[in-house]
Design brief:
single chain; alpha+beta; five-stranded mixed sheet; 5 strands
Length: about 150
């Protein structure tokens, strides 16, 4: 997966493309501190690698994924401007389910929470998308974790 700087730069470029609609996913590993307290930091590092692989495996080749830091990841999906937002939300749900199905096979599984937002209007910045998807992620965590919320 990309680092945060490369991810942000690539997403910003797509936001300027008038033919592209961007869907941003913010993903957080639930109760990760408890995971590392129980299984150790080495196991935590290995789990983060598995999360990154699961995210990357759920995406198309043209989509992007990155580790934002700590136990947070992001993914950006790109669609034609004419694509319906409802379809994009369905696709986000499919990605969430696919990632969860992969991770549930891990010996020590902990869930994920996800926030989803679509850049609906021209002039939307990466910062706008990031803040909106982070807010949706926070809503997922406040609603009990282990779910996806749309912002």
């Amino acid at each position: 997966v990309l680092n945060r700087s490369a991810f942000q730069s690539d997403v910003e470029e797509k936001l300027l493309d008038e033919e592209t609609k961007v869907l941003l996913l913010m993903i957080d590993v639930d109760t990760f501190k408890g995971y590392t307290d129980t299984y150790g930091h080495r196991a935590g590092d290995e789990y983060l690698i598995q999360v990154a692989r699961a995210i990357q495996g759920a995406l198309r080749g043209s989509d992007l994924a990155c580790r934002m830091g700590g136990d947070e990841f992001a993914a950006a999906l790109f669609f034609k401007r004419s694509c319906e937002t409802s379809f994009m939300h369905v696709r986000a749900g499919q990605i969430y389910e696919r990632i969860m199905n992969v991770l549930q096979k891990e010996e020590h599984f902990t869930g994920l929470s996800m926030g989803v937002v679509v850049a609906e209007k021209e002039g939307t910045t990466f910062k706008d998308l990031y803040e909106a998807s982070d807010k949706a992620l926070y809503n997922s965590k406040e609603s009990g974790r282990g779910r996806m919320s749309v912002g």
